[in-house]
Amino acid sequence: MMLKRKLKKIKNRIKIYCSKKILKRLGSNSIYLAKLYYFFLDSSFNREMLSVLLGKKIHDLRNDNLESNQAFIRRSIHRIEKGLIVPNPKKDYALGYIYETCKLLNVTYIDLDEKSKNWALDVLDAYFKRADNTLDIIRKSKKEFDNLKEQISLGIDTNTKSIPFAHKELKGNNIKFSDFLKLTERRHSVRYFEDKLVDKKLIENAVSAGLQSPSACNRQPFEVLILQNKDIISKAVELPMGVKTFKDEIKNLAIVIGDLSSYSEERDRHIIYIDGGLFVMSFILGLESQGLSSCIINWPDIENREKSFYEQFKIPKYKRGICFVAFGYAKNNGLIPFSEKKEASDIIVYNEYSNR
Ligand SMILES: Cc1cc2nc3c(=O)[nH]c(=O)nc-3n(C[C@H](O)[C@H](O)[C@H](O)COP(=O)(O)O)c2cc1C
Questions:
Q1: How far is the CA of 340 from the centre of ligand 1 (A)?
Q2: Domain coordinates in residue numbering, the chain
Q3: Which residue, by CA, sits nearest to atom 31 of ligand 1?
Q4: Which of 38, 61, 178, 255 has the fewest CB atoms within 10 Å of its CB?
Q5: Which residue has the least CA distance to atom 30 on ligand 1?
Q6: Which residues sit with their C-beta closer than 6 Å to ligand 1?
């Protein structure tokens, strides 16, 4: 009797497994079957759906409730400065968002860093100098902007002008390609580190280099959690998967966290990974150029690991880990995988795409 029941259980399991496999294959042919598959049989996208929607809600609530919204302000200021660089800038652009921008800048200003404060003020100044004051919306917006300037007049740095400039004004480029290539070739993923903490100044230098990276609409929708405490690191390295063989070697750990409340549209849900990845590349080159080594560690999207991550660091669900970066002083005799790279000719296709 027992054996019969067990056999039935196994049979049912096989049935479920087979139907899951079949549905998985069918699902790849049709969006409706794909939806059914992920609704009933696979929860892999649950976290992402929730975080994206939550981020969007928080973004929009900040605007609706007139609360500080740095991502919105950074994006708006960037859109406005882009309008200023076109030949013969218009006098009546940005009408759809200029008022909201000026209103929200009043409440966001205090949260911006000093350089970004000047950037926002300078760009808006330049905009209103050109804008058509006969338009109600421009007059209304300027009033909000003047109101802010009045409140902060003592704090404005009048020496800077963070407005569009001509390419020829950029400082001379005396970095040779061969030097840059040497830096990129020297960098390797290093997994064996000396037992030594990295000075905060060096970390901040590398982060500043990372912050020079491009980001969509200049939002820079990420932050970096730096861990240098043994106990905290030993818990954190249990979260990702790819560190088993060298977790005890990690003395300095950066966790790059993306902020999905920077967006009000689902279409932008991948930007945290693109912007975060670009940041990380310059960050690790910044480390390398200061004699420090690093290894990026994958942050997989797995429900129970996400849960522990949110709990361990008290991170709100609209934020998400992008990757971890172990860094520090390489052990001289620690081995490094060769990790041969592809040839440029292997990935370049000129003018037409050939699916290889
Ligand atoms: C997104 C990403 C995730 C990675 N995850 C891990 C990881 O979990 N564990 C690990 O040991 N290395 C990880 N690496 C390092 C890669 O294995 C390494 O970059 C690759 O083999 C190339 O070697 P190189 O960095 O020395 O050029 C990761 C790298 C990237 C870019």
A1: 12
A2: 2-42, 53-155, 177-328
A3: 296
A4: 178
A5: 296
A6: 188-189, 191, 240, 242-243, 295-298, 323, 339
List, for residues 76-94, the tens digit of each pLDDT value: 999 999 999 999 999 999 9
Strand, helix or coil for residue 76: helix
Distance CA 1, CA 267 (A): 56
CATH superfamily of 177-328: NADH Oxidase (3.40.109.10)
Strands 222-227 and 293-298, sheet pairing:
unpaired
- Residue 95 amino acid letter: L
Pairing of strands 319-328, 293-298: antiparallel
In ligand 1, the atom with minimum distance to the C-alpha of 280 is 31
Ligand 1 atom having least distance to the Cα of 241: 8
Q: Which long-range contacts (CB under 8 A, 24 or more apart) does 299-308 make?
A: 299/239, 299/240, 299/323, 299/324, 300/240, 300/241, 301/44, 301/47, 301/48, 303/43, 303/46, 303/47, 305/239, 305/240, 305/241, 306/47, 308/238, 308/239
Burial class (CB in 10 A: 0-12, 13-18, 19+), 277: middle
